[in-house]
Amino acid sequence: MMEQFSFIFYNTENFYDTIDDPETMDDEFTPTGRLRWDERKFNDKLEKLTFLFQDIVKPSFPDIIGLAEIENKNVMTCILDNMRRHGMERYSFVHYDSPDERGSDVAMIYNTQSFTVLESRPILVHLNGIEDRTRDILYVKGNTSFGETIHIYIVHFPSRREGREKSERRRNFAATLLHDAVYRVLNENPDENILIMGDFNDTPDDKSVAEVLGARKTVENISSSQLYNLTYPRHKKGIGSTFHKGWLLFDQFIVSGQMLISSKIDCRPEYADVFNPKYLLHFNKNGRPVTNRTYRSHYTGGFSDHLPIYLKIFVKEV
Fold first, then answer.
1. Which residues make Cβ contacts (< 8 Å) with residue 193, sequence separation at least 6?
2. Which among 156, 253, 138, 154 has a CA at the least distance from the CA of 200?
3. For 281-296, how does the pLDDT look when each residue is reduced to its tens digit (9 = 90+)?
4. For residues 66 and 11, what is the distance between their CA atoms, to the nearest angstrom?
5. Cα-Cα-Cα-Cα dihedral of 217, 223, 227, 230, to 10°?
6. Are 142 and 150 spatial neighbours (Cβ–Cβ below 8 Å)?
7. CA atoms within 13 A on the CB side of 195
8. Do residues 138 and 65 make contact, with C-beta atoms less than 8 angstroms apart?
9. Does the global pTM surpass 0.90?
10. pLDDT, tens digit, for every residue of 205-262?
11. How many other β-carbons are positioned within 10 Å of the β-carbon of residue 273?
């Protein structure tokens, strides 16, 4: 049986601690704030997140976990402490505070037995001034237990809060920075393993992903130095990871061609999917499934306004 190595990505929906940070707009996520965010609610979200990590690629545990909408290192430490209490002991994390005005960051958890971090850094996304601050892109380079080096980029592109068209330029700008960072690596060595995962706030068909980043939708005539969207087949079938007037696939895995033609790694689009068990869904009054959010018009105790995505790759027997 081939050795499995797995990645997941999850937008956690505003995973804040309960402490007011005067430098960010986190006031509503405090015990006295609008959302009455307290220790009980925080700990309930911790338990749900750990349960998800244990369930998503069972009977194994994930090797790499990308996260979005994490407030700070305190939240990350609490997540790892709770994972350890539930038997997920050999994990560490990479996180940098970003300039996002709401204090919302991306982060990465990794299994220290199967992945060794060689270097990491934030890639700053400088937009147009203080009112346009957004989260960084997280870059992590590391070695796997099966001897392959992987360059990982975790993203959470600017939101569509002001409308898709008005906010598009921000996502295109972030995609340009990501493209440039990836191709600095590939131009030096086109045979590097690149894996990008995150919430793009755009679908695989949108300009930021398909044109600016240049993630191809099919895996034909593979070139090691091109990027390929592993989640496009799910998008084509109408499968989504978040719900807004319909299901949208904002959360995606994108890899370099080398990941697809490697003599050591078995990586295919069919190994990537959206995880959507019933406990991650809420069925509205019409019986239609939507995401089981932590908050709708009130606190519901749900998981998130996104579904997680996962990718399993396998080590070829050579």
1. 148, 149, 150, 151, 255, 256, 258, 259, 262, 265
2. 156
3. 999 888 899 999 999 8
4. 8
5. 50
6. yes
7. 29
8. no
9. yes
10. 999 999 999 999 999 999 999 999 999 999 999 999 999 989 999 999 999 999 999 9
11. 18
